[in-house]
Predict the structure of Glycosyltransferase, group 2 family protein.
Amino acid sequence: MEPLISVVIPSYNYEAYIGHAIETVAAQSYRNLELIVIDDCSQDRSFEKVNKLAGNELLRERFSGRVTVRKNRHNLGAHATINEGIAAANGEYFAILNADDLFEVNRFSALMEEMRRKGAMWGFSRVRCIGPDGGPLNTEQARLFERIQDKLSGKRFAALAAVAENVGISTGNLLFSRRLFDGIGGFKNYKYVHDYDFFLRACLYDEPVFTAETSYLYRLHGENSFLSLHGEGIRENRVVWLEFYRAVQKGEIANRTILQNPAYVQEFYEAVSAEGEKKRALWKLARNPLIRAGLKLFKAKYRMD
């Protein structure tokens, strides 16, 4: 029997989109699924809409009754809502779907087949941008966004492509095992980069598969969190880079693909250096004990773990 995949949808103020998101989960060619929707105190009618959908007999039958809908008592943020959904899940594998995004029908079939073939604990796919109406988006912004994943080409392992940007793009583009989640811990308290931080930690734990046989449909609509990235998001990125670079320098790596080359630290340094002087400076700062001490205090102040 196919392993159970629990799909967690963190929902916040996407009444216009969440119904379509749920439909694309139900339409999956992979059959053994569980659906969990956690509403993070939406101010629109998202929760009421999801509850109505969850009461549909055909939808419940599609998921063999494994449909859970909850609402947080207080707004917790995306990272905590995702962790809550996973804590409630029964699956051997987990997928996140942002409430405004969509899956292609073959998503889990394609990813699970590739993960089985390579013995990987997790994987992700190509991303294609869609507009507010759900149709393909062919704007310059969309093309630039999709090209981020071009960095994966020719890299010996995925982490080399991710030293400066999140080539996974979104939490919604990840499919990962319970073993991986337990091994690296949950999503950390970052408002803007919890997805990037999780991706980097996962890269050091196990080598992912990447497939273009299916796409994650990422909706650009003017309200995406990355579009509102400001000082807080920039600070979070620097924290994540410093921690990631230091983990590499200390050899905190379980990924056997990375470890195949004893000179992997040099590989990382060259990849970081190729991103420019600012990233190379951060790499050097990660070695500085005073910077690390200050970083620890900074994270404690803003409760980033």
Observations:
- Residues 236-301 form one domain.
- The chain has a mean pLDDT of 95.
- The CA atoms of residues 124 and 210 lie 5 Å apart.
